[in-house]
Design a protein that fits this description.
CXCR4/ACKR2; C-C chemokine binding
C-alpha cells in the first residue's frame, strides 16, 4: 500500500511502515483498517474542511478587497493569512480523490504543483499567524516607540508579507523537489523520493515540529504574556473581551496542532529505529489520519478567530451576503445594522487589539 497524499510531514510509502521483522523474518504488516478509513472517511472529512474553509476565507478576502480604502498592517496580514489558507484548501480535493481511489491519476506535473500548493499554504498560514502576533505585540507593548511608529506602514507590511512567502517557499522547497509521480505495482503514487543515505526525511520531521508548533507557540506565549497585563491595566469594558480572544487564539492553536506534532515526532522516532513493531506502525498510521484532519480544520477557524469576531467586520460580511443573496440575508443585515447603530462604532485601537479594523 502507498500513501494517501504527498506531504513531507505525513507522507511516506506505507510499505515502509508495514515491513516489520516478525519472528526473525520479514513480513508485510497488513493494515486494512487504515486503508478502509482512508478510502471512505478522508474524502468526506477533506470535503467538509474544504467547503467550510473556502467559504470563510473567501468572505474574508471579499471584504478586504471590496471595502478597503486605506489598508493597515493588520488588514495586510489578515489578507495573506486568508490567502494562504485558500491555497492550502485548493489541494485538499486532489488528496481526497487520491485517498478514495488509492491511485494518483493527475500526472507528475500536478504532483509537484499540488504538493507546492499544500506546503506553501501550510507554512504560509503558520508564518502569517506569527506575523499577526508580532504586530499586535508591537502595537500594544511598544506603542510609544517612535522607531516602531515610523516603520509600521503598509509598505513595510507588504515587504514583510513578501518575506514570509519567500520563507514559506524555502521551507516547502525540499518537499516540492523530491515529490514525484511514480508507477508502482498497485498503480501510480505521488510521494517523496529522498536520496538514499541522506537525512532529508529526518530533517523534514524536525522542520515540521519546529515551524509547525515549537516556534509559533513560543512566539504566541511570549507575546501574549506581555500583552495581557497591559490590557488588564486599561480601564475599559472591552479589555476582558480582548483578553478572552487572546486566550482563545493560544488555546485553539495548541489543541489543534499539538496532537499532530506529537504523532510526527513519534514517526521521527520510528525512522530512527524505535517503535518498529507491526502494531506500532498500524497505530501511528491510524492516528495520523485523525490528527491530520483535526489540524487541517484549523484553517476553517482562522476567519472566525481573526476576522468575524469584529462587529464591523461582521456587518460588512452580512452586507456582501445581502447583495449576493438578498432574500436570505436581507432581514438579518437590517437587524445587525440597527444593533450596530445603538452600540456605536468601535475605537481604532480596540479594533487593532481585538479584531480586524477595516478603515
Amino acid at each position: 500500500m502507498a500513501t494517501i497524499y504527498p506531504n513531507v510531514t505525513t507522507t511516506e510509502d506505507y510499505s515502509e511502515y508495514y515491513d516489520a521483522i516478525t519472528n526473525n523474518d520479514y513480513q508485510v504488516c497488513s493494515n486494512p483498517n487504515v486503508s478502509a478509513f482512508s478510502q471512505v472517511f478522508l474524502p468526506t472529512l477533506y470535503s467538509i474542511v474544504f467547503i467550510v474553509g473556502f467559504i470563510g476565507n473567501g468572505l474574508v478576502l471579499c471584504v478586504l478587497v471590496k471595502y478597503h480604502q486605506r489598508a493597515n498592517v493588520t488588514d495586510v496580514c489578515l489578507f495573506n493569512l486568508a490567502l494562504s489558507d485558500l491555497i492550502f484548501l485548493i489541494s485538499l480535493p486532489f488528496w481526497g480523490h487520491y485517498a478514495a481511489v488509492n491511485e494518483w491519476t493527475f500526472g507528475d506535473f500536478m504532483c509537484h504543483t499540488v504538493t507546492a500548493l499544500y506546503m506553501l499554504g501550510f507554512y504560509g498560514s503558520i508564518f502569517f499567524m506569527i506575523l499577526m502576533t508580532l504586530d499586535r505585540y508591537a502595537v500594544i507593548v511598544h506603542a510609544q516607540t517612535s522607531l516602531f511608529s515610523k516603520h509600521r506602514s503598509v509598505r513595510a507590511s507588504v515587504a514583510m508579507a513578501f518575506f514570509m512567502w519567500a520563507l514559506s517557499f524555502a521551507a516547502s522547497l525540499p518537499t516540492i523537489v523530491y515529490s514525484q509521480a511514480k508507477n508502482e505495482s498497485d498503480g501510480w503514487k505521488c510521494k517523496e523520493e529522498y536520496p538514499e543515505g541522506t537525512a532529508w526525511k529526518l530533517f523534514s520531521y524536525i522542520e515540521l515540529n519546529i515551524f509547525g508548533l515549537i516556534f509559533p507557540l513560543s512566539v504566541m506565549v511570549f507575546c501574549y504574556s506581555r500583552i495581557i497585563p497591559i490590557l488588564m491595566a486599561i480601564k475599559s469594558q472591552k479589555r476582558h473581551k480582548a483578553v478572552r480572544l487572546i486566550l482563545v487564539l493560544v488555546i485553539v492553536f495548541f489543541l489543534f496542532w499539538t496532537p499532530y506534532n506529537i504523532v510526527i515526532f513519534m514517526k521521527f522516532l520510528h525512522h530512527l529505529g524505535y517503535m518498529t513493531s507491526c502494531q506500532w506502525q498500524q497505530d501511528l498510521n491510524m492516528a495520523m489520519q485523525w490528527v491530520e484532519t483535526i489540524a487541517f480544520s484549523h484553517c476553517c477557524l482562522n476567519p472566525i478567530i481573526y476576522a468575524f469576531v469584529g462587529q464591523k467586520f461582521r456587518t460588512l460580511v452580512l452586507k456582501i451576503l445581502k447583495q449576493w443573496f438578498p432574500v436570505c440575508f436581507g432581514h438579518c443585515t437590517t437587524i445587525v445594522s440597527e444593533f450596530s447603530e445603538r452600540r456605536g462604532s468601535m475605537s481604532s485601537r480596540s479594533s487593532v487589539i481585538s479584531s480586524t479594523k477595516i478603515v
